């Protein structure tokens, strides 16, 4: 089930909850705002069109813990790269940002694309970062095998 967290007219970042309303795991429960990377960039594009971009960016900059899920699944457009850098600039050193990704960190620079922006984005994401690398079998596959 998906539930809107702090919905506004244009920002529809969603928090994943179980049917009982409990967060799926402790990392998700620590975040104040959770959104899928592709949905975040799509929503930011829409806010540019209706003139609320700066207001939404300011709202995201003030969230204590922002979790961006599924980082690296969809290619970034040039506008996505600029939006991400803007967001990270506003949050850098003042707020926590958590990225979940199946893409190894060593490939992030190439994934982002444009070298200058990739360097700036990676610097803001990785400088003073705590990295947690999970290994082992996929939990989703285990659930399917049991059913």
Describe the structure.
The chain is globular. It is an alpha/beta fold and 147 residues long. The chain has one domain (2-146): 3-Layer(aba) Sandwich (Rossmann fold), CATH 3.40.50.300. A 3-stranded parallel sheet has the order 3-4-5. A two-stranded antiparallel sheet has the order 1-2. Helices cover 46% and strands 16% of the residues.
CATH architecture: 3-Layer(aba) Sandwich
Q: Share of helix among residues?
A: 40-55%
Radius of gyration: 16 Å
Task: Supply the number of helical segments.
Answer: 7
Please describe the biggest sheet, giving its number of strands, its sense, and whether it closes into a barrel: 3 strands, parallel
CATH topology: Rossmann fold
List the helices and strands and how they pair.
Blueprint: E1 2-4, E2 14-16, H1 26-30, E3 33-36, H2 37-50, H3 53-62, E4 65-71, H4 78-91, E5 96-101, H5 108-112, H6 115-126, H7 139-146
Helix pairs in contact: 2-3, 3-4, 4-6
Which key terms come to mind for this protein?
147 residues, 7 helices, Rossmann fold, two-stranded antiparallel ribbon, alpha/beta, disordered N terminus, three-stranded parallel β-sheet, globular
In short:
The protein has 147 residues and is of the alpha/beta class.
